[in-house]
Amino acid sequence: MPDKINKKMLLAAWSINNPYWIINQAYNIPLRKIFKEVVNFDPQEETYKYGKDLMNKKFLEVLKKEKPDYLHLFLVWDEFYPETLLKIKEILPNVKVTHWNGDDDIKFENYTVPYSAVIDYQFISQLQFTKKYDAYQLPWFDMLGADTEKFSPLNLKKKYDLIFIGTPKGDRLKYMKYLLAKGVNFVLGGAGWDDYPEFKKHYIGKIPDEDFVKIINQSKINLCFSQNFFSSPHVLERTLAVNACKCFALTEYVEGYFPKFTEGKDIVTFKSEKELLEKINYYLKNDKEREKIADMAYKKVTALYSNQKMMSQAYHSIEKDKRKLHSLSSLKYMSEKPVYLDKSDFKKGLVYIKNKLANTNYVGFTSKHHENLPHKDFFQVYSMELIGKPISICDAYLYSSLIGDYATLSLHYAYNYLPKKDIHYFYDNLDISQFMVKKDFFLKNIGKFASLYKGERPSFISKDNSFFISMPFVRTKKITKIPVKDIDHILFTYLDMPLVTLRNQKKLFSHPYLYKLLFYSIFVNPQILKHILLNVLRRSKNSRGVKISKFFNKILKN
Question: From the CB of residue 172, how many other CB atoms can be counted at a distance below 10 Å?
Fold first, then answer.
């Protein structure tokens, strides 16, 4: 292992102080072996204590005080305001900012790309996206590895033929029901399976962290699925963790595994129910072949792909890198100034509009009840230049003067993952102010954009010419109908965070926010707020919270 880097790291990753969270396990311990000094700042912990505004302020205060040489981020939503992220280089121009992206299969264009404006080096695990990182000139390091200190061989007797540990998301339920119908001998561990009575005899409960490695070692075949909540192909570190235990992993196929592994030599994958069943039966009957593949995978992962080793190599490479930092290079897009049009401009004719747009390459829009927020221009223009599509569409905060920002419908996920019957929710939450368009495209389609002011649906949006930015750069007071059910990872609500903060401060029932929220929910917009409010109140052990929950629930049903 190379010598420690004689510099300071500020580790500002969501939930970094939670010892049971993967980010803590993946970064907190290894980085302390790489850098002379590591200082933690946990945005989740600080937000739950003090709220989002104060968390952002405290982060910048820590940055000024500690003056780190490196800053490592793990962004999960919009916990940091754009102005907070832009101030990083105002405060410390030469700090090297690294960031881990684990979900590029669903977050690349809409999240990784816009946020890359403030990131210098990307750590990635979805290796099927490396060509896109290269095309967009985003410096990246491979971080698809395993914690080889936690996951290791225990030489235990094989107790289970086949095990899957995880939740029933994506296509997992379909596959396990298929194996059940075929009479396969398997066990299930993890949360959520107790909701399905048919698996009662197979379910061994939630697996405590301290038993996780033990159970992997006790299993002949560890089943590893590779889909996320949206049933998108997703490379998971679980396969490599099983490999590090010198155990056999049977993995759902994703392209991103194959820069590292060779099918049939050190990895075995499946693409269908039939293929899964065939390979389970084959490798249960062929112990020596199964063990040989497990041994080959073990040697490769422990030699090349331990988290500690890969991270150390990445940071030592960054130390030697003499290129201009990416986040400083991105600032050139600050000079691009879009021209904004409003409804009245379209009434003045094409010649007038062309003259107004003479000195710009980009067109934005303003509209009634919608406020464009700071830094919208920079992030949208920057992303358009990298991606090369003529239309960028950002998200919008839903806002009330009574309770502030309370939700965002992610247009990227709504457009790509809502069922057809619910696609109207996408259009209900779309306004012309959220668009940024390249001038040439706009002038060729000026009539289509004019129609948006008339409330018409934009029929011209396609995956070839448009992309979404999952950053809210517009705020609207317009009350919009939003789905309440089956919207995980599509609707992002902010109203629960102040409630959690107030509860932690023991001010939940003495602060006016709760009662403003109740008023707004009952008399203005019950549809958007009810499920979050009920969930928060039900978690309260305070008898008053239980009473308010029952009262509120009764009103909503009437």
Answer: 21
Within 229-272, residue ranges assigned H as helices are 238-244
d(Cα 487, Cα 228) in Å, to the nearest integer?
Answer: 14
**Model confidence at 486, in pLDDT bands (50, 70, 90)?**
low
Is residue 193 within 8 A of residue 208, CB to CB? The reply is no
Query: Looking at the DSSP assignment, which residues form a beta bridge with residue 135?
Result: none
Those residues whose C-beta lies under 8 Å from the C-beta of residue 432, and which sit 6 or more positions away, are 365, 367, 449, 452, 453
- Positive/negative CA dihedral, 180, 183, 188, 193: positive
Single pTM value for the model = 0.90
How crowded is the C-beta side of 122, counted as CA atoms within 13 Å?
29
> From the centroid of its chain, how far is CA 54?
23
The reported pLDDT for the residue numbered 541 is: 45
Helix (H, G, I), strand (E, B) or coil at 452: helix
Helix (H) or strand (E) holding 163: strand 160-165
Mean pLDDT calculated for residue range 21-35: 87
Cα distances (angstroms) measured from residue 216 to each of 164, 177, 356: 9, 22, 65
Give the bridge partners for 100, in sequence order: 123
Is 496 within 8 Å of 406 (Cβ atoms)? no
The C-alpha atoms of residue 223 and residue 188 are separated, in whole angstroms, by 10
In order of 152, 239, 391, 513, the CA distances from 155 in angstroms are 9, 18, 56, 56
Q: Are 109 and 126 in contact (CB under 8 A)?
A: no
Q: Any idea what the Cα angle at residue 482 is, between residues 401 and 343, rounded to 5°?
A: 65
In angstroms, rounded to a whole number, what is the distance separating the alpha carbons of residues 245 and 217? 6
Kindly give, in sequence order, each residue whose CB lies less than 8 Å from that of residue 70, ignoring residues fewer than 6 positions away. Answer: 7, 8, 9, 10, 35, 95, 96, 97, 98, 315
3-state helix, strand, coil in the chain (%, to 5): 45, 20, 35
Those residues with Cβ within 8 angstroms of residue 113's Cβ, 6 or more apart along the chain or in another chain: 136, 138, 383, 386, 387
> What is the spatial distance between Cα 513 and Cα 107, in angstroms, rounded to a whole number?
33
Which pairing describes strands 391-400 and 466-476: parallel, antiparallel, or unpaired? parallel
Residue 494: the pLDDT is 85
- Who contacts 283 (Cβ-Cβ below 8 Å, separation ≥6)? 220, 221, 248, 250, 268, 289, 290
Retrieve residue 478's tokens. 């317009």
Query: 38-52, 234-248, 363-377, 518-532: lowest mean pLDDT where?
Result: 518-532
HEC string of 27-65? HHHHHHHHEEEEEECCHHHHHHHHCHHHHHHHHHHHHHH
Span between the terminal Cα atoms of the chain, in Å: 66
What are the backbone dihedrals phi and psi of residue 227, each rounded to the nearest 5 degrees, phi first?
-130, 150
